[in-house]
Amino acid sequence: MCQLMGVSRSAYYDYVRRTDNYSEKQCHEEILETVRGIANSSNHSYGSRRIVKALNALGYPVGRWKARSLMREAGVQFKLENGYLATPVASRTDSTAGLTDRNMPVKNTGGF
Fold first, then answer.
1. Would you say 73 and 39 are in contact if contact means Cβ atoms under 8 Å apart?
2. In angstroms, what CA-CA distances link 46 with 40, 55, 71, 97?
3. Exposed, middle or buried, 52 (CB in 10 Å: 0-12/13-18/19+)?
4. What is the C-alpha to C-alpha distance for residues 89 and 92, in angstroms, rounded to an integer?
5. Please, where are the H alpha helices in 6-107?
6. Which DSSP state fits 110?
7. pLDDT tens-digit series, residues 14-26
């Protein structure tokens, strides 16, 4: 085919490589703009897991680690509204806090 077109093989494959890279760069920039848009519309409350779900719903098949690198590259960070992550009430209680409030029966040990 290259002889028919009058082009060397190396020039043909160089052209193919350049056109593929251009489309990849264009697609990458498109995904970055989408990530920025998702972050802005969510008021930067979406982390990488939610970004993955949103990108997959929009037709961009990416995983969590790819989404994290895209977020880093786009300059998007997850922001907490109140400055801390809420933890469940059960995990905040001290395990010995309820011991003093119990009514425990006392055995007569016979001399002690």
1. no
2. 9, 12, 10, 36
3. buried
4. 5
5. 9-41, 48-57, 64-74, 89-92
6. S
7. 888 777 666 677 7
